[in-house]
Structure formats: structure tokens, C-alpha cells
Amino acid sequence: MLRKEHTECQIEVLRVFGNLTRWPAVREALADREVVSRLVTLLDSDNRELVYTTVGVLINLMTDPGKRSDFNSFGGIDKLILVLEDFGYSDWQLAALVCKVLWNLAADTDDVGQVFSDQQADQLAVVLDEYLDDEVLFPESGLTAEEQQIAAMLRPLWEEFADVAASLLEKLDDSLESVASAAAATVPSESSKTA
Fold first, then answer.
1. Residues 6+ apart with CB under 8 A from 27
2. 29, 33, 37, 39: CA torsion to nearest 10
3. From its phi and psi, is residue 91 left (phi > 0), alpha (psi between -120 and 50) or beta?
4. pLDDT tens digit string along 65-104?
5. Which one-letter DSSP state was computed for residue 4?
6. Could you tell me which residue, 3 or 48, shows the higher pLDDT?
């Protein structure tokens, strides 16, 4: 059913998968049938609801370490970062779900370099840093009354996003700092060089 080009049908199937993938046996069955590759493809959709339900299934699938390499091999991380960039400002709920998938991918390691390429980690850190700047997103002055009402409605959704995004950004920063420290420790200092 996921291979059909009928969007409403795909969304309904993904809703069912979202519920069923809470069980390890179902996650295993889905991964065995290479559903992961189809899910990665669905992340390219312009349909917000299709992307949202796809990301919901991925949250559950990525809790299993064995499923993560398939997801990575199909370009899933790059596509999630693009979803975050494309939908982030306009959909904090979806942005929060994307961050949960990314968190699940990196949950079992202190070295995010085992999960994300340097380019992916840098790109993700830039996006998260921008999206976590609440002073820019929700300025205290200069807004019309209507803009203040909209900001008041969006802020709780953004805060849900910010909780997981800040944790993910901290994990990225900590890992990148430890890699930089390790690299600096292996470079001989000027005083230790001999002529």
C-alpha cells in the first residue's frame, strides 16, 4: 500500500504503522521488507501530513539500533535535515518529531560522528541554533496585537520542539568539542617540535 501513489492511502497506512511499530516484532517485520527505504522516499513529499506520519513511524523504527544503518544508507539523515529546514518555521510539531528521530539515531553514542557526517552535524547544528533563538522568533517588542496573538499560540509548540532540539544540539556540541579536543591533543605543540 505504501508503494501506491494515493497519498490518503499512504497516510492511513502510516498511521497504522505508527501504532504497530511500538512492538519490536512489527519493527523487525517492516525492516525486513525494506519499508525503511520507502519511508525515506516519502520524506521528499510536499504533503505535510504524509511527511508527519512518516516521521512518526521513523521515531519508533529508529529506537532499534539495527534499523539505523539501513536508514542512513538510504540517505535518511540528509532528508530529515531537509524536512527540518523546509517545514521548521511553519510547523514546530513536525520539527519536534524530526528532532526525536535524530535523537533516537544518536541516542546510544557519545560520538555523533558515528551517526552524522561532519557536514550533516554542522548543517544540523546551524539549523537548530537558528531555530532555538527565541529572541528572534518571539521578540518582546515591535509586534502588532495580531502578531502577539499568533506568537502566543505558537510558543507552546515551539517549546515542545525546543526541549528535544536543545538536547540534540547539546549532544552535537559536546561531541564536536570532544573531537576537536582529541584532535588538538594529537597535534604536537611548537615547544615539542625539534629542529
1. 21, 60, 61, 63, 64, 67
2. -50
3. beta
4. 888 888 989 999 999 999 999 988 889 999 999 999 999 9
5. S
6. 48
